[in-house]
Design a protein that fits this description.
four-stranded antiparallel sheet
């Protein structure tokens, strides 16, 4: 089975049977995002990283050099903004993460 090394599910996302769609909140590199026909320049990426919380919208890998984005949340934020529908989607994503004490 070939796995695209530019896509993965966030390591904190549970992959249990109760989760209906584990790929709904997949993380993708900027290269993969561009392949989805969505241009994201380095400047735009830096601006978004300064605005959006790490760990929810984006993570850094490989010694902090490779940024991966939560494609579902990023796309929804860029298209619809930070309205009630987007905030509900963020809450849905957060509910898929394991609970911490």
């Amino acid at each position: 089975m070939d796995v695209d090394r530019h896509q993965y599910t966030h390591p904190l996302s549970p992959m249990s049977k109760k989760q209906k769609n584990p790929d709904k909140f997949r993380f993708m590199t900027e290269k993969s995002i561009r392949q989805e026909k969505f241009e994201l320049t380095r400047w735009q990426s830096a601006q978004l990283r300064s605005k959006l919380p790490v760990g929810i919208y984006w993570v850094k890998l490989e010694n902090g050099r490779l940024v991966q984005w939560n494609w579902t949340l990023l796309q929804n934020f860029l298209i619809d903004g930070d309205g009630p529908i987007h905030r509900a989607l963020v809450e849905e994503y957060l509910s898929t993460l394991p609970k911490t004490n």
